[in-house]
Write a structure and sequence with these properties.
Layout (H helix, E strand, L loop, with lengths): L2 H8 L3 H36 L3 H29 L1 H20 L4 H29 L5 H27 L4 H14 L2 H11 L6 H6 L3 H12 L1 H16 L11 H19 L2 H14 L4 H29 L1 H25 L6 H15 L1 H11 L6 H29 L2 H22 L8 H17 L3
Helix pairs in contact: 2-3, 2-5, 2-6, 2-7, 2-8, 3-4, 3-5, 3-18, 4-5, 4-7, 4-8, 5-6, 5-17, 5-18, 6-7, 6-14, 6-17, 10-11, 12-17, 12-18, 12-19, 12-20, 13-14, 14-15, 14-16, 15-16, 15-19, 16-17, 17-18, 18-19
Bound molecules: beta-D-glucopyranose.
Length: 467
Amino acid sequence: MSVLSRQQAEGTNLGFVTLVSIVAAIGGLLFGYDTAVISGAIVFMQQKFHLGPGMQGWAVSCLMIGAIVGAGFAGFLSDRFGRKKMLIVAGFLFVIGSIGSALPATITEFVWARIVGGIGIGISSTLVPLYIAEIAPARHRGSLVSLNQLAVVIGISAIYFVNMWVANLGSPTWDIESAWRWMFGLGVVPGGLFIILLLFVPESPRWLERHGLGDRALQILTRVNGPTRARVELSEIRDTLNDESGNIGLLFRPGFRVALLVGVVLAILQQVTGINAIMYYAPEIFKQTGAGTNASLIETVITGADNLVFTLISLWLIDRVGRKVLLLIGSAFMTVSIAIVGYAFYTGNTAGPLVLVLILVFVAAFAVSFGPIVWLVMAEIFPTSIRGRATAIASVALWIADYAVSQSFPVLLNSVGASSTFWTFGILSLVAFIFTLALVPETKGKTLEEIERSWGRRGTQSTSTGR
Ligand code: BGC
């Protein structure tokens, strides 16, 4: 049977749910845009506001402080008020942040505006994967949720071009006075679009059912899965919700404890294996290998394209091959490639294309594995009644780790040197491999309720064996 006729027989409306997922994934675009926009703006801002190294670091990283706060509140607020409403709030915060970062008279005003935008990013980074996971049919959940990661990567690549384009529009004096303002201000366009389009998507059926709005939940599930499957899903959702207190203490029960550990540790490992040392500092790294400014910028753009292509490949593989296998293959390649980068710096053999090729391998390996899959797993492994709050805990951990790596990377390069820094990433990638092998479950093709029950079973097993 062809894919289309199989979908028709099952009544799955993949077109509708894909459209809804794309709208939500614009949140990912804002995430990519906002984390990367600073890379092109900071040089001009440094001259405009006469920033020393400390203030410069703060201007870059204050966004993450906002994101930590936003991710922290996203869970509780979305469990209470709904996923859709909180995504709209995130859109408004992003727009306010964009306008505020475009207009400041002082660096303090700028920092406040970035923190507001960062809160929006923290909320949307947590809720977009979760919202899509809660609405998607199990068989396609992996690729639909990973549309978010694709949008993050598109956002990062798009802003590199926007920055380059804006910087070329005027004189050097105009750049220092105004170019950076446009770089931030243009964020209003995707931000505004996000808010408007969100008005047309439905609320998460799982959230509706939990809040006593079963009729509306059934309507949406029917639209996504067809009437027969929708009724089965709704009754499964009801059964699992009936078993849950909705209390966050649920996470400390034997089975769910492991889920919490998996979510938080994967979130931290996604960051401490070093992706953003490359995403945020790529031109610096390439310069250290002896490349000129221009060559290092071109190499950075190639890295972005590599990230994009392999994220697309991941989208295709994720529901076919499964999460765990991809995480294992990805972390294995990340370990080897980044360890050899360390060795190249250790021996001083960095001339030629070797470091670039290895970094491309590292980014490709991340893009098929830890990039999309960590956000996906964080959105699918927790119980429905507390999913928002539990995912938020992992998301806060991820943003703190992101902050720590991006703050410490330049310091590490100058203190312990490039080889030890990259070897540390190598060791942590190996830890990621071992951790995945030992503890990460395969969630491919299972409904969220089946995943939830499997943790329950683990808990019963470990209690009965006295572990
Ligand atoms: C990570 C970001 C990273 C991006 C790069 C995302 O999954 O959370 O920190 O910059 O991937 O593609």
